[in-house]
Amino acid sequence: MGSLKKYPRQCRIRTNKLLIVGLQKNKTIFTNPLSWKRSTQVIVVIAVVLLVLYAFCLPRQLFNVPYSTVVEDRGGELLGARIAEDGQWRFPVCDTVPDKFKTCIIHFEDRYFYYHWGVNPLAIGRALSQNIKEKRVVSGGSTLTMQTIRLARNKNRTVWEKLIEAVWATRLEFRCSKKEILALYASHAPFGGNVVGLEAAAWRYFGRSADQLSWAEAATLAVLPNAPAMIHLSKNRQQLLRKRNLLLHRLHERGVIDEVDYTLALGEELPGEPLPLPQIAPHLVTYFHQQHKGERITSTIDIGMQVKVERLLVRWNRDFSRSDINNIAAMVIDVDNNKVVSYCGNVNFADDKAANQVDILRSPRSTGSIWKPLLYYAALQDGEILPHTLLADIPVSLNGFNPQNFSLRYDGAVPASQVISRSLNIPSVLLLRDYGVAKFYDFLKQAGFTTLTRPSAHYGLSLILGGAEAMPWEVATIYAEMARSLRGLEPTKSQINNRVKPEVVARVFKPEGVWQVFEAIKEVNRPEEIDWRDIPSMQTIAWKTGTSYGFRDAWAVGVTPKFVVAVWVGNASGEGKPGLVGARTAGPVMFDIFNMLPTSPWFSMPDGDFAAAEVCRQSGHLKNRFCDEVDTVFICANGLRSEPCPYHVPVHLTIDGRNRVYEHCAGEFGAVQRSWFVLPPAWEWYYKQQHPGYKVLPPFKTGCDDGAQSIMQFIYPQHNARISLPRQLDGSPGKVTFDLAHRNNAATVFWHIDEEYVTATRDFHQLTVALAAGEHYVTVVDGEGRVLSVRIFVE
């Protein structure tokens, strides 16, 4: 009432009356306890509602925007990025902000950032004063927290919107730390054009990461978000330079930077046009963009090794392109941790020609011979063969499938270890036939090959010669698992994403089998293709090459105790080229990559499930009682169940050793028994040409032989073979060639087809004829009256 004394007395009387009347009308508020309680409850409810609204005013995810996919190497170096879905270069939110930029942005935008709770009343008062004085908006008074809210809401600037920003800013201060708020701002601030966020700006404008920026560069980026539409690197550059220098001057005055840093910073020029982002391991970046769009991926790649391998592949690609071989891919795995340290899916990614953007490492390609060591392992581990078991190498026709060796030659019989090291096709096919296609097919799927999408019968025996497809990625990872088993390391999936915990898998490979495989292929020597001994400074490597049918795919994979290197060369289109052979193209590239890697001593013999066994030196089988040369070797334990030597047999000879006899026809002088190494006639025919020391059995004494089966054998075709005879280029009917082996080089053989005499051969028994479609019988008779026949079907 004292405040009314300054008014005239009449006014005071009237006012007092009004107050008394008002109090009388509302006296129930003060005299009724129930009304007072109800009013208090309403106030509490309103306060709670307002508090709840305040607590939940911020969305759970403050920024609902798409991000670029960013891929880094294992040390955090940028490999590459893919633009966000909205066309902006906006990297995912980073946890920290580099010190230089943090200092610059705080001194430029919000000096008291660490002292307020989202709203700075002093800054707002200063902004109001400046705006009133200038009669226009020259300062907004927004804190960095409020600016972060404005970036998230992206609404038109109004007084009401400013109030909302202030409320949300205080709420954000409760949710996030100052460090997190600054990171949110730095990750979403606009820097001109389609560049959003500090990291993207640092790479686009300066070609380096934000933590490597100089004071001048950090100051430039600190002033850009203030008015990115008006001041940009491509316009108003002088105004931008003045703002940058003013900020540097402020930092110098406040003692943040010394005189030397200040002088050097002022001398730096503004950047020019935006720079392209790094394009290192671009196919891997694309893969992660497809699988983890909008995320930051820390890969297992070693950027130094990656750059070296990419440059090497580009050099080789220039050479290969002269022969119209346009694509090449390679990857390197660190065996110790099973992590990929180099991933080159192709070359010349930026060039649209020659399908260079196709990621070959994850593309199914015909395998060629690259699976032969796996078949060798499976047969060894299951006891089907021993390391040096003789396998047949003769012409064969298997239900119309006629495999041939790369050299187009035959050795008759070859130790299994040499079959793998020399990559012989025919013995590998015969080994697969004996092991079982379905069984090997199941083993490949168990090992981790995902490209076998059809039943095993679809692939048949061609499975071992490139009749199926595999991804180079899977080939490399499975060879890496073989190396890890030999070193006793835990079986895991090969890793390319460093933020994913290694996935432990079931052990497929046992060390004893892998040891014998690697011992065989570390001595790879194919003079007709490449001799590894001619390559200088070569460490011991277990390696295998492969060439697909039609010269479409060339493979090489190599293993040391430390690294696995896989290389593919060819055309992504599948076009074949003469000379596209694994050992001549992919092999040398693989060796060059190994020469860039640290060397290591060879594997130590593991403590696997080995068994000591006495093995026939000539046949590679377990010894039988007639084997006269025996070696004691370590084999897989299951190998003890394998067949004893079938080739050392007892023979009875006349006293002079010139003829074979049986006891019933030995005559009065009797016979002597000797052990003899005897191969089947078809094997023997080729084997003795490669092994001059091989002793052919003496002929039987007249009237004392055992028939034609042990003397003659059809090399081609086999009994019940189905033969397809396409027409010749001139339209004439196709012809079939029959080959026969006879133990007696001087024997004369008479040929009959369908009971009609055709011709006679001597020394070299081969017959080429044209046959009508249908069933035919081929019969041969030698000079001693021995008869041998086969049935064939011509299609």
Biggest sheet layout: 5 strands, antiparallel
Total strand count, please?
A: 28
Give the mean pLDDT: 88
Total number of helical segments?
Answer: 23
- Percent of residues in helices comes to 25-40%
**Rg (C-alpha, Å):** 42 Å
**Strand residue content:** 15-25%
Keywords:
single chain, five-stranded mixed beta sheet, elongated, 23 helices, 795 residues, five-stranded antiparallel beta sheet, alpha+beta
Structure in words:
This protein has 795 residues and is an alpha+beta fold. Helix content is 34%, strand content 18%. It is built from 23 helices and 28 strands.
Chart the SSEs and their pairings.
Elements (H helix, E strand, L loop, with lengths): L8 H17 L1 H5 L1 H23 L13 E4 L5 E5 L6 E2 L8 H11 L11 H14 L9 H10 L5 H17 L2 H11 L6 E2 L1 H9 L8 H9 L13 H17 L5 H9 L14 H10 L4 E3 L4 H19 L5 E8 L4 E6 L20 E2 L5 H10 L8 E4 L18 E4 H6 L3 H11 L1 H11 L8 H4 L9 E2 L1 H15 L24 H11 L3 E2 L3 E2 L10 E6 L5 E7 L3 E8 L15 H11 L13 E7 L13 E7 L11 E6 L18 E6 L3 H10 L21 E5 L4 E3 L12 E7 L5 E6 L2 E7 L2 E5 L4 E9 L4 E8 L1
Parallel strand pairs: 1-5, 3-4, 22-28
Antiparallel strand pairs: 1-2, 6-7, 6-16, 8-11, 9-10, 12-13, 14-15, 15-16, 17-18, 19-20, 21-23, 23-26, 24-25, 24-27, 27-28
What is the gist of this entry?
The chain is of the alpha+beta class and 795 residues long.
